[in-house]
Structure prediction request, 616 residues.
Amino acid sequence: MTTRQTEITAAGPDERLARTSGLTRALRRPAFGALLGAVVVFVLFAVTDQQGLWLTQTGFESWAQQASFYGIMAVPVGLLMIGGEFDLSTGGMTGFTAIITALLISKLGWNAWVAIAVTFVVAGLVGLLNGYVVVKSKLPSFIVTLATYFVVRGLSIGGVLLVNNGQSSISVATGTHSGLASAKAVFGSSFGKSTALPNGYSTEILWFVAVTVVATWILARTRYGNWVTASGGDQDAARNVGVPVQRTKISLFVMTSLATALVGVISFTQTSNAVAEQGVGNEFYFIIAAVAGGCLLTGGYGSVVGAALGACIIGMALEGVIYAGWDSSWDFTFLGAILFLAVGVNTIIYRRAMRARR
Amino acid sequence: MTPILEVQGISKFFGSVNALQDISLAVQAGQVTCVLGDNGAGKSTLIKILSGVFGPDKGDFLVDGSPTRFASPRDARSAGIATVYQDLAMVPLMSVWRNFFLGSEPTKGWGPFRRFDVATAKRLTSTELKAMGIDVRDPDQTVGTLSGGERQSVAIARAIHFGARLLILDEPTSALGVKQAGVVLRRIAQAREQGLGVIFITHNPHHAYPVGDRFVVLKRGKSLGNFARSEIERDELVRLMAGGAELDELSHELERPV
Prediction:
C-alpha cells in the first residue's frame, strides 16, 4: 500500500535536490532586477553625460530629488500593490493635498502646522473611503480609485477657481504666516550646502529615505507586513488562518493617501505655491516605479527597496536625458522601454522564484 | 474514552434542500475517522458544521462529551479543532516559514517596535517540519515551489504546532498523484500515532482504508453506515462508495469476455 512504500526520512536531505545556488538566491529577491536596472541606467547616463556633471554632487542631487518626489509615493503604492490593490487617485491626490494646505493657510489664515495636520486627516479619510468601498463592494480597486481620482481632480480645479477668484494658482508669502517657516524647514528646505553644491540637498531626499526604511521594516519584519503579502497573495488562504484581510487592505489605502499628503505638503512648502491639477498623471510614474521594482501587478510579491530603486531609475532617466543633451520628450519613450524591460526581467525572476523543485 | 468530537443525528437544511440528514459520527484521540462520499454527498456541509462555519439545524454537537455550539471557525480552533482545506491552506508566493506562522506570528519587542520574531519563526519552522520528517531544503523557498504532498504536510504540521487535538482534513489527497498522496497518508498515520484525532474527508476509499479506524459513508446527505475497520473489507467499502448494485451493473456492462 502506498502508505508503506513512501518513505521520506528525516535524516539527510533528499538526494535528488541540488543545493540552491547563490545566483538563484539573489534572483529570488524581487528587488534584484531593479538594482540591476538602476546600475545600467546610471552607467548609461554617466557615459552619455555631455555636461560633465552626472558624477558630481550636482548631478546626484538632481536625480535624487526627482527620485524622492516619485519614490515617497512609489513605496506605499508598491506596498498597496503587494497587498493586491491599486490606487489611481494618488497623482491627483498629491495636488489636492497641496491645495488644501495652501488654501487653509492663505484663505483662512491658519497656522501652517494646523493646516498640515488637517491635510493629513483629509487625505487619511479619502484613503479610508477608497479602502472601505473596495473591501465592502468587492469592486476592483482600479475602478473605485479611478472614480476617486476624477472626483478629487474636479474638486481641486473647481474648488480652487471658486475660492481663489478664478485663479488656478495659490501663492503664500513665507514670512507672513505663523508656522510656515518652521514647516518649510521640516518639509521643504535643504541641507548639506557646500561650495560644490550651493543649494544643498533637498530635505525631500531624507523623507524618501525615511519612508523607504520604515516601509521596508514594516513589510519584512512585522506581523502586519506578513499580512500585507498574504492578503495580496491569496486572500482566502490568509482569511482562513485568521489574517484580518479587510483591515489590512483598508489600512494600506489609508497609508497610500497619507503619503500623498506628505508629497503635497512637501511640494507646497518647497515653493510656497500650489496649482490646481498639479500631480495629475503622476500615478502612472508611481506604478511604473513599483512595477520596475519587482512588485507583481497581481499582488503578493514585491519589495519596498525595489519600488524605491524603481523611483531612482525614473529620477535618473528624467534628469539624465537633460544632462545627455537629448530632447526631454524622449523621457516618455525611455520610461515606456524601462517598464517593458522591467516587466520582462521580473517575469523571468518570478518564474525562477516559483520554479518547482529547484 | 470520551470522543474529542461527536455529532449525533445532525441535520442541515438549505431552504427546501435537505443537505444532511441524521448523521452521526465520533472521533477519539489517536483515531482516524474517514468520511467518504461522492460529489454532492454532503461532505462539504458536514465539514462546515464540524469546523464551526455554521451549526446544525438538528442534532447534538459534543466536544469532549459536553454540548457545544461554535460561533465561528475561530471558536473551533481555540477548542483545538483545526481544519486543513485542500486549496486554501497556504499562500504560494510566500516562503515556507512566513506561511507557517501566518496569522499567528511570534513577536518580540514592545509598543511601536513590536516586530515579527523572524529568527524564532525560521527556527521553529525547521524543527517542527523536521520532527514530522518533512525535508524542506530551505525554509526561505516559496510554498509554490513545494509539491502538493509537501504543501499539505506543511499545513498539517502547522495545525499540530498550533495546538490542534483534532485535525479535519478536507480532501487532502484528491488533487495529488499516487506518490504524493502516500506522503499525506503517512502524515495522517503519524498524527494518529501522536495521539491526535483525525477526520479525513475523501472520495477515495483506497486512500481511506489504510489509515482509517472508522468509516462513515455519505450519499445524498444520508449516512449509508458507520463501520469500524474490523467490520468492513476494503472491497465492500469501494462497493458502498460506488453505489453497490450500480457498480456491479457497471462492471458487468464493461466487462469483456476473456
About this structure: The CA atoms of residues 97 and 122 of chain B lie 6 Å apart.
